Amino acid sequence: MALILHDATEARQKTYEAIESERIQALTLLAASVAHEIGNPLNALHIHLQLMEREVKKLRSDEPPSPRSGAVRWRASGAKAASGVANPSHEETARKLEQYLAVAKGEINRLDYIVTQFLHAIRPTPPQLKPASLNEVVDKTLELLRPELDNRGLTVKTKLQPRLPLAPLDATQMQQVLVNLIKNAMQAMTKEGTLTLQTGEGSEGVWLSVADSGGGIPQEQINRIFEPFFTTKKKGSGLGLMIVQRIIRAHGGRIELESHVGRGTTFRIWLPLHERKPRLLEAPLHD
Predict the structure, then answer these.
(1) SS3 of 283, please?
(2) What is the 3-state secondary structure (H, E, C) of 74-133?
(3) To 10 degrees, the CA torsion angle through 214, 218, 222, 228?
(4) E strands of 103-213, at which residues?
(5) Distance CA 69, CA 126 (A)
(6) pLDDT digits (tens, 9 = 90+) for 21-45
(7) What is the DSSP-derived secondary structure letter of residue 227?
């Protein structure tokens, strides 16, 4: 009797990598097209909305306009011209226009963010690895996001290991990773939620975790969470976690996910303490 065992792990891994490569290639072509076709119109729209805002401010101004720019409008607002008090109907119109402009600018900024995410996804910059502290990255990122965290009424807990060893990392890219993870956590929670950031050290290197007290991710969605365009948010681009994963891989690290429905989600990032250098083949020995 002969027993033949075949380990398919490596073959499966290669198949997965090939599929991921094809997805990224398709994403590259699509993103380049989107960035080109949408970028210029977005810029033009943004400029014209700014011009409209200026005109609305002139409409609400109590000072008489110059004969050139606003004489006609001033004559039309007879009550204001005579008494110096704004016409109530004009004030209401100006208020509504400001609201509409704010919504339009918000949507343009969201589209611009999506285009930027596309570009980050298809053109990842190689990390500039230098000895740095994850604790400092956490502190700087929290300082950047503090107004938004306070506005949402979230509680932030930090458990940073003192004297954490320095690791070879690109501090700017790691801050981008942390911003993406924290924003995901913020959107997963309602007001009075708790965001917990931890750092530590293990046998494999240093680690950083971001935990929220949100609703968690259902098991059937966890396996798809890093796929391009997959998102559980109403206004998400589905590219944030893909960018996170690519940055972590470029650092030679890995990212783990643990989530429980109704209790929250935790992302944990592992980074090696030493930069991995390419192995060179030994020269053959000759007699």
Answers:
(1) coil
(2) HHHCHHHHHHCCCCHHHHHHHHHHHHHHHHHHHHHHHHHHHHHHHHHHHCCCCCCCEEEC
(3) -80
(4) 130-132, 155-159, 167-169, 194-202, 205-212
(5) 52
(6) 676 666 666 666 666 667 667 777 8
(7) S
